[in-house]
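In the current project phase, we have settled on a layout for protein records. A sample record is reproduced below.
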Amino acid sequence: QVQLVESGGGLVQAGGSLRLSCAASGFTVSGYSMGWFRQAPGKEREFVARINWGGGTTVYADSVKGRFTISRDNAKNTVYLQQNTLKPEDTAVYYCAAALGGTPEYKYWGQGTQVTVSS
């Protein structure tokens, strides 16, 4: 059974840090490109970051570039999102997702973890 389970969210003050984890089961992340997305109340889901399969190149939304880092531990079948210098506008539910190989379409999605940044 394929499953993505996010964890690590919580309440943090502006300027603080969090590390989100996404544990995969039922498939191996090394064969997939993994992404993080977020959805704030009343807004559409938006792309945050992606780490590509194979060489592991990364892509970030402009709004998080330089503050967030996506990484992958294939041995643990887990993907991470290190969030530094958090801002109130980063408040959202964060989701991880998996796309087979280098395809753009995300096939599997997690249930999300809440990140709340207070000012």
